Amino acid sequence: MTNKYSKRLFQLLLLVSISLNAVSQSGTPLIKVIVSPDHKDWTYKVNETAKFSLQVLQYGNLIDNVTIDYETGPEALPDVKKEGVVLRNGKMDYTGTMKTPGFYRVRVWAIVEGRRYEGLATAAFEPEKIQPTVKEPADFDKFWTGVIEQARKVSLDPKITLMPERCTSDVNVFHISFQNDAYASRIYGILAIPKKAGKYPAILKVPGAGIRPYAGDTRLASQGFITLEIGIHGIPVNLDPQVYMDLNGGALANYNSIRMNDKNTHYYKRVYTGCIRAVDFIFTLPEFNGTDIAVTGGSQGGALTIVTAGLDSRIKFAAAMFPALCDHTGYLNKRAGGWPHYFKNAEPKPGEIETLQYYDVVNFAKRVKVQGFYTWGFNDLTCPPTSMYSAYNVITAPKELHIFQETGHWNFPEQTEMLNNWLTGKLKAQ
Fold first, then answer.
1. Phi, psi of 202 (to 5 degrees)
2. Could you tell me which CATH number the domain at 140-429 has?
3. Which residue out of 299, 327, 341, 387 is catalytically annotated?
4. Residue 349 CB coordination number (10 Å)
5. 417 Cβ contact partners less than 8 Å away, ≥ 6 residues apart
6. Residue 104 burial by CB count (10 A; 0-12/13-18/19+): exposed, middle or buried?
7. In the annotation, is 409 catalytic?
8. DSSP class of residue 255?
9. Of 266, 328, 341, 409, which residue is the catalytic one?
């Protein structure tokens, strides 16, 4: 990679890092719109009334005669919407309830000097009782066994290239690729391996949605773990950032919907298979200890974490943040479905429901047999908590759920630290 491309890649990664840090800290807007449920854990019994208080603050003081818009009701499907409401003393109360297990959300926008400031809170009603709506195909296991067996007929043909500019004093970093499910269909990633001779446990890091470069994880590698961070789109992960921008707006725009009416050609077929082939690749590494391997990711990566753990018995531990792709048919049953919200605003076309049953995370969650760490928040607008609980509640393996109620589709640093500590602690204990 040329110095010019290296510089541009560094600048893009720095910008992404800054943006994610800003999101994870929630920011400090001039106007604060605070919505608060009256239960500290934001959790209620079905048919119980949740009371929400709203405050619109500037410099810690209520704003008189502030104008708000708001919507309330079941998450993603609000049944009350009001605009131009004036709060004389800057505060207001709401109430809501659910007759069945689920989530009730109050979302408010305050308009101050022409700018909109948002606040929300989401109350849970017996979420542990939420059950999925998606059906399971009778040949689900046969289908995926056949897909993986067919893919393994293709040689991995691994290619490993040292990246001296990324290496540290104790970690070697490589740009790698291997064949996936067909000739010349490759998966690319960044591999980080401790320099000190020895046999190490491994962590497979699966990606969130989008098309981007990757840097690998030298921090965890420096602690004595092999880390492999993969991309899913069959392109190198160290290219000029403009390449990813062009693909995102061009050939791979809305990739999650490509051929979603055919189980044999849907885009996520090569993605799910690629995750298994990534495990195959890790097992070829002479530095791998041969037994201890975990998978982790957030959002689409949370989905791929569950998928990989459900398909591959070699995985020992799974750690997922706010998993996507859960219970797509929720919207067809008058409740929230998972990202990418296939049926929220469109009726299913022939073959789509049947195809997506083979790719819905719920059906992989049923097959997870390893210890798992899961975490998310109630305010997630991208991956509605109803959809995530639909998958979590069918997992029968040992599991722990860590709820950070306030978070949306982002996480607190403490949340990430908790996940990493759990993951590394489990691997080191083996």
1. -130, 150
2. 3.40.50.1820
3. 299
4. 9
5. none
6. buried
7. yes
8. G
9. 409
Tell me the per-residue pLDDT of 320-355, one tens digit each, with 9 for 90 and over: 999 999 999 999 999 999 999 999 999 999 999 999
Contact (CB, 8 A) for 342 and 321: no
Cα–Cα distance measured from residue 181 to residue 178, given in angstroms and rounded to the nearest whole number: 10
CA 166 to chain centre: 26
Which CATH superfamily groups domain 31-128? Macroglobulin (MG2) domain (2.60.40.1930)
- At 17-38, the pLDDT tens digits run 434 444 444 468 999 999 999 9
Contacting residues for 113 by C-beta, under 8 A, at least 6 apart:
none
Q: In terms of DSSP bridges, do strands 288-298 and 317-321 run parallel, antiparallel, or are they unpaired?
A: parallel
Closest among 285, 225, 222, 286 to 428, alpha carbons compared: 225
Place of tokens 């789509």: 352
Distances (CA, A) of 329 to 135, 136, 345, 348: 9, 12, 12, 10
Residues of the chain with CATH 2.60.40.1930: 31-128
Pair of tokens at residue 89: 């003393």
Q: H/E element holding 83?
A: strand 80-87
Pull the structure tokens for residue 166. Answer: 């990324």
Q: Where in the chain is the domain with CATH 3.40.50.1820?
A: 140-429
Q: Is 328 a catalytic residue?
A: no
pLDDT value of position 29: 93
Enumerate residue ranges in the chain where pLDDT < 50. Answer: 1-26
The pLDDT of residue 171 is 98
Query: What type of residue is 211?
Result: I
The pLDDT of residue 410: 97
Q: Which of 217, 292, 312, 380 is catalytic?
A: 380
Residue 333 DSSP label: G
d(CA 75, CA 292): 39
How far is the first Cα of the chain from the last one, in angstroms, to the nearest whole number? 39
pLDDT of residue 50: 98
* Helix 267-282 × helix 140-151 angle, to 10°: 60
Tokens representing 68 are 């708000």
Structure confidence at residue 27 (pLDDT): 62
User: What was the pLDDT predicted at 9?
Assistant: 45
Angle (CA) 265-160-246 rounded to 5° is: 50
Query: In a 10 Å sphere around its CB, with 0-12 CB exposed, 13-18 middle and 19+ buried, how is residue 365 labelled?
Result: buried
